[in-house]
Amino acid sequence: MTEAARDQNPTGRPAEGDEPPLAAASTKEPMVVITGVNKHFGDLHVLRDIDLTVGRGEVVVVLGPSGSGKSTLCRTINRLEAYESGSITIDGKTLPDEGKALAQLRADVGMVFQSFNLFAHKTILENVTLGPMKVRKKSKAEAEAKARELLARVGVTTQADKYPAQLSGGQQQRVAIARSLAMEPKVMLFDEPTSALDPEMVNEVLDVMTSLARSGMTMIVVTHEMGFARRAADRVVFMADGEIVEVATPATFFTSPRSNRAKDFLGKILSH
Amino acid sequence: MGELFASYNILGAFGLTILLAVFSAIGSLLIGTVVAIMRVSPIDFLNKVGAFYVNIVRNTPLTLIIVFCNIGFIVNLGMSFTNDIARNNIIWAIIGLSFYHAAFVCEALRSGVNTVPVGQAEAARSIGLTFSQSLSEVLLPQAFRGAITPLGNTLIALTKNTTVATAIGVAEISGLMKEMMEFRADLIIVIFLLVAIGFVILTLPIGILTTRLSTKLAVKR
């Protein structure tokens, strides 16, 4: 099976970290700890007793069919969605309910959205400097120097004075990543970052994410990009119907999924 | 027409109209913004206070409010800013006009807030901005741009509504018009046209300016 062959060596390069097994995660210092989280949308039980621990520097990719609750889980971690029971801690700190404490915690959690959500009335540079200046109280000069460095890192240096609408989707998403990185977050959340992109722009964003993963950033990525999951993930979390069904290394998950739902899901997306 | 200008202080009366309009515009924009913030805030109590304010004030006739400013606040409660009766009435007229139009400014701004996609607020919160920072840095700047046209409508209405101040003896242009018509019945049509054209000259630029601004400052998405 060609799929399996690619799984063994997805990039053609010698696989790095051949065994980032489950055990590896638990030996790492925990960064995000989700315990017994439940959430309903009306009658719909969208998150059922979610338990998940993500270690410092770990990259976790969350997969699953639409409606499985993976985006909701991602948004719950920085409390863009409230949850009813359970707890979430980030770097040992429990997520506060509202107010200044929550704002401060969110500053440590980068979030990249499906629809980019760059501030439409601000230039690219202003988008990246806003958080550092208002939240981290950095000087304008310092924030701009850092912003230009980050824009260079994501490859949109020449666009700094333009407005978001003047950039392509891929460029906007890379700026959104730079905007999050400018806050020097402890963990980055990606909520389907490439789903709204034209196909030819997906890779430029995934490349930035892959290099970010290699740089040791703690990342939780909700995506349908199986290539990225294989290439960059330490662990794959498979969700269905609001539950975590399976947690495995990418190699294990893609070659020998245990649950029927995972087999079914992979069958649907990998068969073509 | 020359004799009209010679015997009546038409420009002075229009000046007072402009003064009422400018100060009431500033007042209503400030109060309206505060009420709009209350109505979009996550605090339920403030929402209700804001909604209550808008629904009471917006649905009360302006004449009633202006007359109440005089009879209620000045005469009955003795709340005067100065001993100069004319000035006192002007100040209370500005207060009445400001609070009345604030309800409309609030609703114009709220329609502007609705032009801002939810994702903008989510992005603002997710980089750690507090509620007030999200408002002042992200939501309101975009809401104001989306609200320019309805705000322009409100300002035009406000300019014309200053004529209601005549009910409490503020000597703005409509009061003078009544006086002129009484004494110069031969010139009624001229007087009417003069005042009407005067208002068009005052309000037309507001419309032109807000239309220009709304296209120029439109947030491209």
From TrEMBL, chain B:
<feature type="transmembrane region" description="Helical">
    <location>
        <begin position="59"/>
        <end position="78"/>
    </location>
</feature>
<feature type="transmembrane region" description="Helical">
    <location>
        <begin position="12"/>
        <end position="38"/>
    </location>
</feature>
<comment type="similarity">
    <text>Belongs to the binding-protein-dependent transport system permease family. HisMQ subfamily.</text>
</comment>
<feature type="transmembrane region" description="Helical">
    <location>
        <begin position="90"/>
        <end position="109"/>
    </location>
</feature>
<keyword id="KW-0472">Membrane</keyword>
<dbReference type="InterPro" id="IPR010065">
    <property type="entry name" value="AA_ABC_transptr_permease_3TM"/>
</dbReference>
<dbReference type="GO" id="GO:0006865">
    <property type="term" value="P:amino acid transport"/>
</dbReference>
<dbReference type="GO" id="GO:0043190">
    <property type="term" value="C:ATP-binding cassette (ABC) transporter complex"/>
</dbReference>
<dbReference type="GO" id="GO:0022857">
    <property type="term" value="F:transmembrane transporter activity"/>
</dbReference>
<feature type="transmembrane region" description="Helical">
    <location>
        <begin position="187"/>
        <end position="208"/>
    </location>
</feature>
<dbReference type="InterPro" id="IPR035906">
    <property type="entry name" value="MetI-like_sf"/>
</dbReference>
<keyword id="KW-1133">Transmembrane helix</keyword>
<keyword id="KW-0812">Transmembrane</keyword>
<protein>
    <submittedName>
        <fullName>Amino acid ABC transporter permease</fullName>
    </submittedName>
</protein>
<dbReference type="InterPro" id="IPR043429">
    <property type="entry name" value="ArtM/GltK/GlnP/TcyL/YhdX-like"/>
</dbReference>
<dbReference type="Pfam" id="PF00528">
    <property type="entry name" value="BPD_transp_1"/>
</dbReference>
<feature type="domain" description="ABC transmembrane type-1">
    <location>
        <begin position="14"/>
        <end position="210"/>
    </location>
</feature>
<keyword id="KW-1003">Cell membrane</keyword>
<dbReference type="InterPro" id="IPR000515">
    <property type="entry name" value="MetI-like"/>
</dbReference>
<keyword id="KW-0029">Amino-acid transport</keyword>
<keyword id="KW-0813">Transport</keyword>
